[in-house]
Amino acid sequence: MSKKYTITTPIYYVNSVPHIGTATTTLLSDVQARFQRLTGKEVHFMTGTDENAIKVLEAAEKAGKPTLEFVDNIADDFQKIWKEFKISFDDFIRTTEPRHHKGVYRLFNIIKENGYIYQDKYEGWYDVSSETFYKESDLVDGKSPDGNEVRWVSEENWFFKLSAFEQPILDHIKKNPDFIVPENRKNEVISFINQGLRDVCITRKSQGWGIQLEDDSAKVFYVWFDALINYLVSCGWPDSADWTDKWPAATQWMGKDILTRFHATMWPAMLMAAKLPLPKQMIGHGWLLIGGEKISKSKGNVVAPVELAKYLSEVSGCSYLLAIDAVRYYMAICMPFENDVVFTEEDFFARYNSDLANDIGNVLNRTLTMVHKFSEGTIPDAKIDAEAIDYISNCKKEYQHHIDNSRIDLAAKIMLNCSRWLNKYIDTKAPWALAKEVSIELNAVLRTMVYMLRNIEGFILSIAPDTASIIAKQLKLDAIKNWNEVGTEALAPINHTVGSPEPMFPRLDLKEMKKNLKESSKEDKKIEKQNKKDVKKEDDGSNAGLIDIKHFAEVKLRIGTIELAEDLEGSDKLLRLEVNVGDAKKQILAGIKNKYNPEALIGKQVVVVANLKPAKLRGHLSEGMLLAATDKDGSAVLIHPAKEMETGSEVR
RNA sequence: GGCGACGUAGCUCAGUUGGUUAGAGCGAACGGUUCAUACCCGUUAGGUCAUCAGUUCAAGUCUGAUCGUCGCUACCA
């Protein structure tokens, strides 16, 4: 069995349908997959859904559906939408499938046997009302993301010895410069690992959802540990005989957000711990940020690619299939690589007009018309311009190079440049002028035009498959099926009769659309204006840096009496204080250990910010703060009232 | 607080190891053309490369500071 070219997308959370972000990743990988197939490679292109997150439970509950049914539905939706979006995946893996569970168990056991898994106490914040564990970073102002109270809980769990792989991963990155792209992301990963990796807790107390441990049904695997394994499972690991043909993957695609922490550290570590090969390349591309004003009825920040295509089809009159291609093309040519790219619907429609309607669509149209007018509809018997053959031969090389390097945007630009080249070629040669007298050159020009068009077909095929097939169809020629065909003269067969032109991408009336936009977004603008006004009122520039008194009034300052002070265990800066502020006692952690003895503080009065949101420091809750002046050396000097005050007195 | 990224034309973005007059596409203006989807081709306008200072013969590029946006992180109270 020959080695396959494996391309992966992340598996996506099932609490929402595909949006512009997931669609971008998926589309870019699809272009690569389609291209590699075109070159004759056997491709294993996989995507899927991550269904074991605890959040799924809540989402299902909200939807009023049994959890299993809920995830089934969403997984179906994903597949439907991806198919509509022409994603040519070979495998769609769901982490609720038995094959995935089997893989997770196997990998866990292998890593355990290899000595990289151990049992220890897991401590974390536990949200009782939603029965969910939260990481420290998940907490919002000391509460769960839903605003529920959390409490500190510790329980026995399994840990993965991630810390053992700091150096091995760094070494691997160094030895394989293309392992992580782009460069700036690679640097981020390196500096992240250099900060030190902590072992990760890979099991949780079961909430009734997730993959239960084989010998302990009260526990489930941490979702990221389970999810990453899907890549292996999709390749047939561990039991299928041919999994080594598919793994390691050639390219693992993802957005930059899940690269550093998971794919570039935890995942390689897991593979190393199991003595499995690492993927050849991971790409953490930037985001397609949503900005500007929205023309369509899409709500909020979620622009569904399929909805966008539907809307484009409505307003432009182009077929739905080609409208999907337009979205695909846009995402391809705007691919965010190192940096994020701003997406606006206005920009999308402008690009549709300039690139697809005016350039590519129009050049097909004028070529066909000319072949009909000047050559009775048949490709004349003439030599293709050597200039064109040269040009295409270069483009072909570059195009392949770019796709192999995952630069879908640059590849798309080559295609667009071919169309520009052809437009310029036509203008320079002016076939309509040549046609006025008998001319051999006219025939060569006409055949060259068709030849160029066919190469554009070849270049756009992986990006916008139906656009390619329509080009072939209007020329009444068999569609390109292999990359070898690109650049050959056989693409424009002599004496072949072409079909009649029909606009693929009808031009949009952007001015008209802008008018509509203005009306539809009047409301939004009003709100925006109001907001701006409010900001201006408070800060009109002349008062830069000054605040309104009402902002100050929001801060509740009280005289508090320190009733208890002690060192905080494990901290060399913080003291733990209990401060009476009149109506309540508050635990406050203060970073004043280097200046104050705890004993000397007891009984002292201080100024306390009484309505500060609690925060957790060093694992302990701090419910307020003491006012202190900053000394020359940067240390804190507490502020005391000038005379003994009643505890709880207001400070103004 | 720490680490990091970013700030380049009206808009969206390129600018390799510092090296002439800072680029592209879109948009705009003007001209040309008529095969074409009011399209295409050409020309032009438009930039204190966030600000300030420094290194250098030479800085968008290197260094430091400042401002702004964003991300991660912390023993920030």
How is this structure best described in words?
The protein has 652 residues and is α/β, with parallel strands linked by helices. The chain has three domains: 237 residues, 3-Layer(aba) Sandwich (Rossmann fold), CATH 3.40.50; 140 residues, Isoleucyl-tRNA Synthetase, Domain 1 (Orthogonal Bundle), CATH 1.10.730; 101 residues, OB fold (Dihydrolipoamide Acetyltransferase, E2P). 44% of the residues lie in helices and 18% in strands. A six-stranded parallel beta sheet has the order 3-2-1-12-13-7, sandwiched between helices. Strands 16, 17, 18, 19, 22 and 25 form a six-stranded antiparallel beta sheet that branches. The chain has a four-stranded antiparallel beta sheet with strand order 5-4-6-8. A hairpin with a 5-residue loop joins strand 23 and strand 24. Helix 13 packs parallel to helix 15. The structure holds one RNA strand of 77 nucleotides.
SSE topology sketch:
Layout: E1 5-13, H1 20-38, E2 43-50, H2 55-63, H3 67-84, E3 91-94, H4 98-113, E4 117-127, E5 132-134, E6 150-160, H5 166-175, E7 180-181, H6 183-194, E8 200-201, E9 203-205, E10 212-213, E11 216-221, H7 223-228, H8 230-234, H9 243-246, E12 251-255, H10 259-273, E13 282-285, E14 288-290, H11 305-316, H12 320-333, E15 341-343, H13 345-375, H14 386-404, H15 408-429, H16 431-434, H17 440-460, H18 465-474, H19 510-520, H20 522-538, H21 549-553, E16 557-567, E17 575-580, E18 585-590, H22 598-601, E19 605-609, E20 615-617, E21 620-622, E22 625-626, E23 628-630, E24 636-638, E25 650-651
Parallel strand pairs: 1-2, 1-12, 2-3, 7-13, 12-13, 14-15
Antiparallel strand pairs: 4-5, 4-6, 6-8, 9-11, 10-11, 16-17, 16-19, 16-25, 17-18, 19-22, 20-21, 23-24
Helix pairs in contact: 5-6, 6-10, 11-12, 12-15, 13-15, 13-17, 14-15, 14-17, 15-17, 17-18
The protein binds one RNA strand of 77 nucleotides through helix 6, strand 15, helix 13, helix 15 and strand 18.
